[in-house]
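User:
Can I borrow your eye for a moment on a structure tokenisation matter? Would you put together a sequence-and-structure record for a protein of your own picking? Please set it down just below, with no commentary around it:
AI:
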Amino acid sequence: MGEIVSIHPENPQQRLISKVVDCLHRGGIVAYPTDSVYALGCHIGDKQAMDRIRTIRKLDKHHNFTLMCKDLSELANYARVDNVVYRTLKATTPGAFTFVLKASSEVPRRLMHPKRKTIGIRVPQSNIVMSMLDSLHEPMMSVTLMMPEDEYPMTDAYEINQLLGSHVDMVIDGGYCGLEPTTVVDMTDDMPKILRQGAGDFSAF
């Protein structure tokens, strides 16, 4: 079974965050709560961990991971962001949105869409995730923890560990997590396009 780590959702304990980050640096896979649903995360440079996540989620090799960033400054290292896009991102982050953006040269080729050269990026509104990213000093690769046979994402750390504990290295118990995944917005053209309506309300911006 994976190790369950109980982290306070408002005031994450740094010693436990450091434990999670050490696991990621060692090539581990972590199931963690976000501001929308639970997700599976791994180190950005770890292809083997990404392949393990694909196996867990039964994803094909073309499924795009999301790059979790701690702020817009970090995000701008991995995506091409003009003034118009920046204003939109500034108004909507942190929050339950995933933005499809044109990838910069910093993004490894295997992480971007093979034809469009895009990358999905988000800045979550979660103290636990923010603490993880702050200690990592770099983004984290992530996918929603939604099993192919399920209608809804998993929300309980102990149920996740019971089902996936032999496949993941650590499960963070950070309290209840929502049922709605992020709203996905394509920002690669002049007009934003909603690809998936989820927890984030883009109509307000």
In short: The mean pLDDT is 91. Residues 3-204 form a domain with the DHBP synthase fold (CATH 3.90.870.10). The CA atoms of residues 5 and 19 lie 9 Å apart. The radius of gyration is 16 Å.
